[in-house]
Amino acid sequence: MSERLPTSPAFWRSPLRGPRLTSLLGVVLLAGITVLFVTGLVSYAAYNPNLSPVNDKTPDKGLLGFYLFAWPTDPPWLYRLNQGTHVTLGIALIPVLLAKLWSVIPKLFELPPARSLGHALERLSLLVLVGSALFEFVTGVLNVQLDYVFPGSFYPLHFYGAWVFFAAFVAHAALKMPTVLRNIRRERGGETGELVAPRSDAPTSDPPTVSRRGALQFVGGSSLFLLATTVGQNFDGPLRRTAILAPHGGPEPGSGPGGFQINKTAAAVGVGADETSDEAWRLVVEGRRTVRLSRAQLHELPLYSAALPIACVEGWSTGDQWWRGVRLRDLAELAGYDRGREPDLFVESLQRAGSFRRAALRDNQVRDPRSLLALYVNGEPLTPDHGYPARIIVPAAPGVLNTKWVSRLTFGDL
Ligand SMILES: Nc1nc2c(c(=O)[nH]1)N[C@H]1C(S)=C(S)[C@@H](COP(=O)(O)O)O[C@H]1N2
Ligand SMILES: [Mo]
Q1: pTM of the model
Q2: Ligand nearest to the CA of 356
Q3: Phi, psi of 307 (to 5 degrees)
Q4: Is 393 close to ligand 1, i.e. is its CB under 6 Å away?
Q5: Is 351 in the pocket of ligand 1 (CB under 6 A)?
Q6: pLDDT digit string (tens) for 186-220?
Q7: How far is the CA of 251 from the centre of ligand 1 (A)?
Q8: 396 and 294 in a common domain
Q9: CB 316: neighbour CB atoms within 10 A?
Q10: Which of 163, 178, 360, 374 could pair covalently with 325 via S-S, beta carbons 3.0-4.6 A apart?
Q11: Contacts by residues 58-61 (CB-CB < 8 Å, ≥ 24 positions apart)
C-alpha cells in the first residue's frame, strides 16, 4: 500500500499521535461536553419552546421534549449563569476538540472499512460522533458570531444535533472507557514529556518536533486564551472590554443609563420615532377584555422597580439594571384575569420583520411581581435602542423573551 495515501498508517507520521494523547483529550471532552449537553438542554427549556408555535416553529419535539419543564423565575441570574457557562465552555473546548480529531484522523481512513460487524458499527458510530460534534460546534459558533444565519431556526438544528451527538457520544465513551483507563495508567512515563517507544500503529514516525507535554500545553494554552478573551462578555465595566473575541451583539452602547449592551438597535429593525412618539404609540392589552393605553395612562398604574440582568442566548449578559414599569400581573388584571390566576402571555412588538418581534411567556413568569412592562431603566426613560416606549423584562428569562418596543399584549392560555 502506498505511503502517500491517507489510508496507509505510514501516511500519518507524527509520533505524538497515540493512545495516551487521545485518551487524555477524551477525558477532558467527556467532562466538558457533558456540561455542554446539560446546559444546552436547560437553555432550550428556558426558551419556553412548547408555548408553540410562537417561540419555536418546530413544536413537535416528541420524546426528546420529555424533560421540558416550566422555567422558574428564581434565581434571577439562572439563565445568565447557565448560558454564560454553555457558550464560554463551548468556545474554550474548541482547541481540545480539534486536537482530539487530529489525534484520531488515521482511524477515519483505516482500510479495510470493516473487519467485522462490530468493527463496522464502531466505525459508523465514530463517523456520526465526529460529524455531529463538528456540526454542534460550527452551528453554535456561527450563531454567536453571525447572528442567526440559519434558514428556519437555529434552535431545532442545534437541539436535534445535540441528541444525535449525545447518542453517539454515550456509545463511544462506553466502548472506549476500558481502553482509556488502560492507556492513561500504562503510559504514566509520558507525563515527563519523554516519548515512549513507537507503537505498532505508528510504524514509520517522523522525529518529534515537540514533546507530548508541549503539545498538551499548546492545546491547554489555546483553550485558556479563548476562555480569557470570551468570559468578559458576562460582566460589566473594564472586564467586558477583555472579551476581544466575543461579538458584542451590536454597537458599543456608550455610557449613561442606557449604557449597557444592545442586541438590535431601533434603526436596525426599522422602528422609528414616528411610531414610538407619545402621540402615535398605544399599548393594546387583550384578554377577557381589550384596553388601549397611552404611555401617560400607563403612568396612572402603580409603577414598580426590579434589578434584573439581560442574558442573551449568544452568551453575553449584563449586570443588574434598574428597571421600572408596570407589573405584568397588573396588566393581566386589567385584561380581566383575577390575581393569582394569571394566564400565559403573547407579546408583540412594533417591529414588523425579523426574529424576536414576538415572544410567549408562561403564567408563572406573568405572575412574578418582578416581571415588568418596563418604561424606565436606571432612572431614565428607556432609550430607543433598549425598547422605548415599553419593553418586557422577566427575571431569569433568556434575553430573547424580553421583547422591546412592545405594541400588544394578549393574555390567554397558550
Ligand atoms: N422587538 C425586539 N425585541 C427584542 C429583540 C429584537 O431583536 N427585537 N432582541 C431580543 C434579544 S435576542 C435580546 S438578548 C434582548 C437584548 O436587549 P437589549 O438590546 O436591551 O440589551 O432583547 C430582546 N428583545
Ligand atoms: Mo439575545
Answers
A1: 0.89
A2: 1
A3: -95, 110
A4: no
A5: yes
A6: 756 544 433 444 444 445 567 777 788 888 899 99
A7: 13
A8: yes
A9: 28
A10: 374
A11: 58/152, 58/153, 58/155, 58/156, 61/159
